[in-house]
Amino acid sequence: MTGTALLALIALGTVGGAHLLSKARWPWQAPRLGIALWQALGLGWGTATIGALLGAALLPYQKGIVHGMPGMLADQAGRLDAVHLASLLGGVGLTMVLVVMLMYAIVRVVRARRRHRALLALVSRSDSAAPGTLVLDHPGAAAYCVPGVRSSKVVVSAGTLELLDPDELAAVLAHERAHARERHDLVLLPFASLRQVFPQIHLVGRCLDAVELLIEMAADDRARRHREPKELATALLRFAAARPGPAPSGTLGVATAGDIPVIARVNRLLKPQPVPRRTRIAATAAIPVLALLPLWLYVIPH
Known about the structure:
The chain is mostly helical. The protein has two domains: 1-80 and 276-302, no CATH class; 118-271, no CATH class. It has helices at residues 2-23, 31-57, 68-74, 82-123, 158-163, 166-182, 184-197, 202-223, 229-242, 259-270, 277-299; strands spanning 124-125, 134-136, 143-146, 153-157, 252-253. Strands 1-2-4-3-5 form a five-stranded mixed β-sheet. Helix 4 crosses helix 7 (184-197) and helix 9 packs antiparallel against helix 10. It is elongated, with a radius of gyration of 23 Å. The protein starts with a helix and ends with a helix. The chain crosses the membrane at residues 6-24, 36-62, 82-107, 281-300.
């Protein structure tokens, strides 16, 4: 009973933690740490919620989840009453929904990228002003990355080449290559699929928005290793003023929607601030606890 109660408490705690983290501003100064904490929260919520449901279902066997499951299968769930059976179906059903929706999100993104790559092969061109980059003859501002397992493509529009000076363009390309190199698209997939599972829950949308912003900031940090922060900052401001449209499905663009994220990114580029030491230590310690504690509770007898 104790293990099941702890799993339920962790599940509730991760929801509260997600609410607080979605409003926190310290992750903006350490986006990679913030992304890792978000991933741990998501994994902890999923494993703890499923574990709480399965643990409650297997309470009549008094052996926990891992050791109680064989006993339940051996007697064909003979000890389960209606309440325990409903809990079992809830745990199995939630697992299936999360896995199926994640697979669906992956398939949808892969198909969108395949279609977009085929389109790029027909309409894009190379340009000496942006070596190693595909250029679209479009007057609007656009710069995005099409991630891939074997090769990623960085795409800019002709309008971007006119909008930015050479240094700003180099900073934007460095930002997009950072997305491709660090496979930020894989970070977003679980959160995007979770929003598909719970589209009416506002907190899930806020979580996805927070992770998307941190991913952009992480790419900004990698870009400023090779370029001056001011170059990327002025490029972001020019993009914001040009009001670019959303990046195509399955891609990662340089500019997030809305003025507030852009201003936040510009401010941290020009005036970086360290994360308080206590906050960094607490977040670093929380990551393995959130990720591993629910799994450990699967094993111990309840």
